[in-house]
Specification:
Blueprint lengths: L2 H11 L3 H8 L5 H13 L3 H14 L5 H17 L6 H14 L3 H17 L3 H9 L8 H17 L3 H18 L2 H12 L6 E5 L2 E5 L1 H8 L4 E4 L4 E3 L4 E3 L4 H13 L4 E2 H9 L6 H18 L3 E5 L3 E6 L5 E5 L7 H7 L7 H8 L3 H13 L4 E3 L6 E3 L20
Parallel strand pairs: 3-9
Antiparallel strand pairs: 1-2, 1-9, 3-4, 4-5, 6-8, 7-8, 10-11
């Protein structure tokens, strides 16, 4: 490897893509093409970066298997950053196996980190945890170590383990400063802000207040009866019932929880749960049926008693009933939560991350675009959606992941 290639590689490792391009911008040999591709990726031109890396992979000879694997690894990382979540899986597995076979431990570890990062994005936290467990952060360069700690913190935040997340972010900060890459240091600093910002709303006895992530964690570990409108779960200290696939039942549970310790008139329950302004006898009959279903599901935790005017919730073991709601109510909050990271997402990636159909995601995106909440660029399969982050609100509670004990 000649001195210019070495100097360009060092510049890229230090987060200086322009310095790297000054050394290899006019060269067409395979190593230079690969370094130019990585530099363009760091500058945000992903389309040109992919093209350069593919040219580099073709330019490397048939016996330069490890060099081609490194190009595939870089291309997979670009696909991940540009939110092509369906692409990197097989390419990463193949690149990782090749790098391990040729003894490139550092890049093999980087492939594992990218696999964990992808799994985190699509909400597969247990798989991401297992993938990270195969890595020893102490053996990684400072930049890679900081990135791994960010994924560790992301998993802990999704699971509402704030102490674990805070410790991982401290380690990530030390590694980022050791690496001396300003962009990485800024990424760690922004991730740490999530722990200090409001993450949910607590609704109890007619009053509302915002909660940080550590306060949400404390609430869920308490003895309170919680109607969780972030994950569509009703829980107390002894049990939890998921109503994710029972929207009417959850709407009734939320209305009753917000009104506790009072009751809710039947007309109010019908109007809000069934979304109708004009109730008739069929609605009242349906209300009795749905309340009966909800009463059966919640029997281990609470009773729903009939009153003179409507119904009231009466927990068996808890002395307090609260509703945990999203910091910002929106019909398409889950889509907004993913777009709030500032990256450009495809509709297929959003569908994969949310575990729903691409058509449902497309309808949500069209509605958000009509309300000027998201924007798009490109056409067809190259179309991407993005929105600036909502100031002051992290979105970890809106993303697909189970709470502890689910």
């Amino acid at each position: 490897m000649d001195s210019l290639i070495t100097a360009a590689a060092r510049a890229l490792a230090a987060g200086d893509p322009l310095g790297a391009l000054k050394r290899v911008a006019l060269r067409e040999d395979a190593p230079a093409l690969a370094l130019r591709g990585i530099a363009m990726a760091q500058l945000g031109d992903f389309a040109r970066a992919k093209a350069l890396l593919r040219r580099a992979a073709r330019a490397f000879g048939p016996h330069e298997t490890m060099a081609r694997a490194r190009c595939a690894l870089a291309e997979a990382e670009i696909a991940l950053v540009s939110r092509d979540l369906g692409e990197p899986a097989k390419a990463l597995d193949t690149a990782h196996a090749t790098l391990v076979a040729h003894g490139d431990a550092v890049n093999a570890a980087h492939a594992r980190y990218l696999q964990a990062r992808r799994l985190l994005l699509i909400g597969r936290l247990d798989d991401a945890d297992r993938t990270l467990a195969e890595l020893d952060p102490a053996t990684l360069p400072p930049a890679s170590r900081a990135s791994c700690e960010l994924v560790t913190a992301g998993i802990a935040i999704r699971r509402l383990r704030t102490a674990t997340a805070r410790a991982a972010l401290v380690r990530a900060g030390h590694a980022a400063r050791q690496a001396g890459i300003p962009a990485l240091t800024a990424e760690v600093r922004n991730a740490a802000r999530v722990l200090e910002l409001p993450a949910a709303r607590l609704i109890a006895r007619g009053h509302e207040r915002l909660l940080r992530l550590d306060e949400v964690e404390t609430l869920l570990a308490s003895t309170a009866f919680v109607v969780d409108a972030c994950r569509y779960v009703v829980r107390d200290a002894r049990a939890a019932v998921s109503l994710e696939r029972r929207p009417v039942l959850f709407a009734l549970a939320r209305i009753l929880g917000e009104a506790w310790p009072g009751d809710v008139p039947r007309a109010t329950l019908i109007a809000r749960a069934f979304r109708t302004r004009h109730a008739d006898e069929s609605h009242r009959a349906r209300l009795r049926v749905e309340i009966g279903r909800l009463r059966t599901l919640l029997r281990p935790m609470a009773d729903i008693s009939a009153t003179k005017h409507g119904f009231a919730l009466a927990p068996h073991h808890a002395s307090e009933v609260v509703v945990l709601a999203r910091p910002v109510d929106d019909a398409h909050a889950a889509v907004l939560a993913l777009l709030a990271d500032g990256e450009a997402w495809s509709s297929s990636a959003l569908a994969l991350a949310l575990g729903t159909s691409q058509r449902s995601v497309q309808r949500a995106l069209d509605a958000l675009a009509a309300a000027d909440k998201v924007d798009s660029f490109g056409r067809g399969r190259a179309r991407r959606w993005m929105t600036p982050p909502v100031p002051g609100f992290p979105t970890s509670l809106l993303l697909p992941a189970p709470f502890p004990g689910d």
